[in-house]
Amino acid sequence: MFSGRVFGPIFSRRLGNSLGVDLVPFKTCTYDCIYCQLGRTTNRTLERRAFFPVAAVLDEVEAKLAAGPPPDYITLSGSGEPTLHSEIEAIIAKLKERSQIPVAVLTNGSLLYQAEVRRALLRADVVLPSLDAGDAELFNYVNRPHPALSFDQVVEGLIRFREEYAGALWLEVFLLGGVTAIEDEVRKLAKWVELIKPDKIQINTVTRPPAEEFAFSVPEEELHRLAPILGRNAEVIALHHEVAAQGKTWIQEQELFNVLRRRPVTLEEIAAGLGIHPAEAAKRVQELLATGKIKSTKVGSIIYYLLANQS
Fold it and tell me: Does residue 234 sit in the same domain as residue 257?
């Protein structure tokens, strides 16, 4: 459905106006996190490959930059784990050659135990890894990593990367109600955070429908209570006004219908109109196609979507 690798700029809670760059196919990841807003991982792997040609990625970024005002960041992120792209080092280097816009990498940090991955990210301006559990048991429960990936590898990789990396390191800690948002578990996390020494600790929780119904959000006041345990530079980034009730769809039908009512639109236009990632828009579009509320039509090689009662 969506063939482009560059999306936005869209507003990011952490990076302002961010031009996103998808470096891997949809849901190609080292983890299968129970809280992921994009659903279950379909290709859980540790194999690094050049999924998309470097030149094609750069051409799409340049086209996007030429089409509008400059974003605050060019962010390598998207619908999977960007460090699985074996040419990410070259992509970062060439982005910095062609633009003055800072480059950020939004990663789960799981491959930083590999020296070549650490080296690949050294030229990024900001690296935003994550750590969601303080021990192996909860790491396996929350992140559901590839079987060959261990908790010790992940935390040791984060510590080593901090020792080698001179840029800004912002560590996301994703807390889940009844699981990791327990004071004893947060204290376990804090011990690792102290060793990792991030510049910022950004605390998050479920604010959109997760991959699993048993991944529960944490109330905002509880996040603020737990934040000081993680460190003086900890901040709560979860926006609870985004939280939908468990079981409800984050992208409300009416919002999507309002976009479709104007004219037939592409998936990329839906994503831009709603300010969401194209993969998230694709998931919702597929649900509405299945129920017959919307339909698709093809003009040349481009697929457009419109309301089912719209001609």
Answer: no
Out of 247, 270, 287, pick the residue that ends a domain.
Answer: 247
Tens of pLDDT, residue by residue over 111-120, are 999 999 999 9
Over the Cα atoms of the chain, what is R_g?
19
Looking from the CA of 30 toward its CB, the CA atoms found within 13 Å total: 23
Q: Which domain holds residue 154?
A: 6-247
Lowest mean pLDDT among 61-70, 80-89, 118-127, 138-147: 61-70
Length of the chain: 311
pTM strictly above 0.90:
no
Q: Residue 73: beta bridge partners?
A: 18
Q: What is the CATH number of the domain that holds 180?
A: 3.20.20.70
Q: CA-CA distance, 35 to 155, in Å (whole number)?
A: 20
Domain CATH number, residue 272:
1.10.10.10
Picking from 41, 196, 34, the residue whose alpha carbon sits closest to that of residue 130 is: 196
**168 and 26: one domain?**
yes
